[in-house]
């Protein structure tokens, strides 16, 4: 018996019956020999961490565009916070942490530069629209490794595809692990965006409605503690009742929803950041239009996509992979006059 088989056997003992067991995975599109040491979900986690698109997350904006402070979140640090919250919830429930980790690390890999402003621009410009969760799947299956993709397991891809959305009408992941990541994403970004907004002097703790504070807590750590514990206990209670799903209790979920709405009104769509959002959108639109008219200037890989799948898809793939810094660099290279005579 090799090490991987030992780990798979330990899963049978340590995980709850409704967890996703590595040995029962629906597998990959392309069959592979199993690793001697790592389970299939451990392999997926490692493939995501070592991918180029994962590394680019460190230069993609979470909320604040072109900040100078070292302590503001980026898309990469957000991903790490989601992963840690999700693993804590998953362990509390008795789920597969390796699957949770793989989903969480890959969940935002398809995000565009300049936070959600970039997603809005591509959604507006592309004939079929644009959603970052669907683009994450495309990056992982079609773009990475020069078109070969990472050949991830069905469970990981399903969890990434359905991590987004907050309404009860949104389709959720097929696995409890994927559902944990969906809640962890919201718990992480709402709370760390409050923390960043306070650091940027755009918000004060006392601005948060008292009705929310009374339920979730008055500090960053108190709110996360409340939400994590509630998610664990409420999910275990669901399962006891035969309801196999991850969820928060009614009052806690409503408070989180209201906190998220507060942040949309005050920060994400607020007047204070509006000028910078407009600038970011302008930059992205101009870079997109340039390559739409000059697709031959794109790298060879993306020119091949233009031939195979059309102009808009090739340009969208190139633009969506850019970091904030690279997009600004290209904008300056294309549109800003240079001093050429001394």
Order of helices and strands: HHHHHHHHHHHHHHHH
Beta percentage is: under 5%
Roughly how much helix do the residues carry, as a percent range?
A: 55-70%
CATH arch. level architecture: Orthogonal Bundle
CATH class: Mainly Alpha
Shape designation:
globular
DSSP helical segment count: 16
Q: Which stretches are poorly predicted, pLDDT < 50 over at least 5 residues?
A: none
> Got a strand count?
0
Domain module count: 1
Give Rg in angstroms.
21 Å
Calculate the terminal CA-CA distance, rounded to whole Å: 72 Å
> What is the CATH topology assignment?
Hypothetical protein af1432
Q: Find the structural class using helix and strand composition.
A: mainly alpha
Write the layout of secondary structure elements.
Layout: H1 3-14, H2 40-49, H3 52-55, H4 75-93, H5 97-106, H6 115-125, H7 132-143, H8 154-161, H9 176-199, H10 210-216, H11 220-240, H12 250-268, H13 274-293, H14 300-309, H15 311-320, H16 324-335
Helix pairs in contact: 2-5, 4-5, 4-9, 4-11, 5-8, 5-9, 6-13, 8-9, 9-11, 9-12, 10-12, 13-15, 13-16, 14-15
Describe the structure.
This protein is mostly helical and 342 residues long. The chain has a single domain (3-274), classed as Orthogonal Bundle (Hypothetical protein af1432), CATH 1.10.3210. Helix content is 61%, strand content 0%. The chain has 16 helices and no strands. Residues 75-190 form the HD domain. GO terms for molecular function: triphosphoric monoester hydrolase activity. Belongs to the dGTPase family. Type 2 subfamily.
């Amino acid at each position: 018996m090799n090490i991987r088989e030992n780990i798979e056997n330990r899963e049978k003992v340590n995980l709850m019956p409704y967890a996703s067991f590595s040995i029962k995975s629906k597998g990959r599109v392309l069959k592979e020999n199993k690793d001697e040491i790592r389970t299939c979900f451990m392999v997926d986690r490692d493939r995501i961490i070592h991918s180029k698109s994962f590394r680019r997350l460190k230069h993609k904006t979470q909320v604040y565009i072109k900040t100078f402070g070292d302590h503001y979140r980026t898309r990469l640090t957000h991903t790490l916070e989601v992963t840690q919250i999700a693993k804590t919830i998953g362990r509390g429930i008795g789920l597969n942490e390796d699957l949770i980790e793989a989903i969480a690390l890959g969940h935002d890999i398809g995000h565009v530069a300049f936070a959600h402003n970039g997603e809005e621009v591509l959604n507006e410009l592309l004939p079929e629209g644009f959603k970052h969760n669907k683009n994450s799947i495309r990056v992982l299956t079609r773009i990475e490794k020069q078109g070969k993709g990472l050949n991830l397991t069905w469970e990981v891809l399903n969890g990434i595809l359905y991590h987004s959305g907050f309404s009860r009408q949104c389709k959720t992941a097929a696995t409890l692990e994927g559902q944990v990541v969906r809640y962890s994403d919201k718990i992480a970004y709402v709370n760390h965006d409050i923390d960043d907004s306070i650091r940027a002097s755009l918000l004060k703790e006392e601005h948060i409605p008292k009705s929310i504070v009374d339920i979730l807590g008055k500090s960053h750590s108190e709110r996360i503690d409340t939400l994590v514990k509630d998610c664990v206990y409420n999910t275990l209670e669901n399962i006891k009742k035969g309801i196999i799903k991850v969820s928060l209790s009614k009052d806690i979920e409503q408070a989180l929803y209201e906190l998220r709405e507060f942040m949309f009104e005050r920060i994400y769509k607020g007047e204070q950041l509006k000028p910078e959002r407009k600038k970011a959108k302008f930059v992205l639109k101009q870079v997109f239009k340039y390559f739409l008219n000059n697709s031959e200037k794109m790298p060879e890989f993306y020119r091949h996509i233009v031939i195979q799948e059309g102009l808009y898809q090739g340009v969208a793939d190139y633009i969506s992979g850019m970091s904030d810094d690279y997009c600004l660099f290209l904008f300056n290279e294309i549109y800003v006059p240079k001093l050429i005579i001394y």
